[in-house]
Amino acid sequence: MKRIAIFASGAGSNAARIIDHFRGHAGIKVSLILCNNPEAGVLAIATREGIPALLLDKEKFFRGNGYVDELRENKIDLLVLAGFLWKIPASLVQAYRGRIINIHPALLPKYGGKGMYGRHVHEAVLAAGEPRSGITIHFVDELYDHGQVIFNATCEIAADETPGSLAQKVHLLEYEHFPRIIEEVVNLQNQR
Fold this sequence. Notes:
Radius of gyration: 16 Å
Order of helices and strands: EHEHEHHEHEHEEH
Number of strands: 7
Number of domains: 1
CATH superfamily: Formyl transferase, N-terminal domain
Shape: globular
CATH topology: Rossmann fold
Helix content: 25-40%
Largest sheet: 7 strands, mixed
């Protein structure tokens, strides 16, 4: 059984879909939720689903070892960032290199980096006059939104698009593809 930990900072809509996707799965289980926001909806999802949750302390996360000890204690194989707004510290990247996946609400390498999340990304895409946007699922390295791309999906941008309507299109792509791509990554790792 491969064990996944989901890192999230907000409502947890992607986390909920990942949990649903792997419910009853023979080889993959969401085993831990890690969150940096005590008010985040993802914590209620963890409680409802009976999944242990860990509230992250900023000092320990960045100046300690990034909770590597706790992840190892829980026998976590893969880390999934689903709307997690903190940069992953080098200690955690090194411990889980090639086993941390993030989803970004734009087509990287454009519109990535510090501060480029949520509405900020969609506003930047629209301000640039892009004809399309989408999602990028990628491995995490020591730089913001930089690691090897695993998968992209695109959506067209309408002439009257708003940041809110673009966010809805991008969310649909996330919900459709993220759980499936996670499963594909786990299956590829199992073959190694």
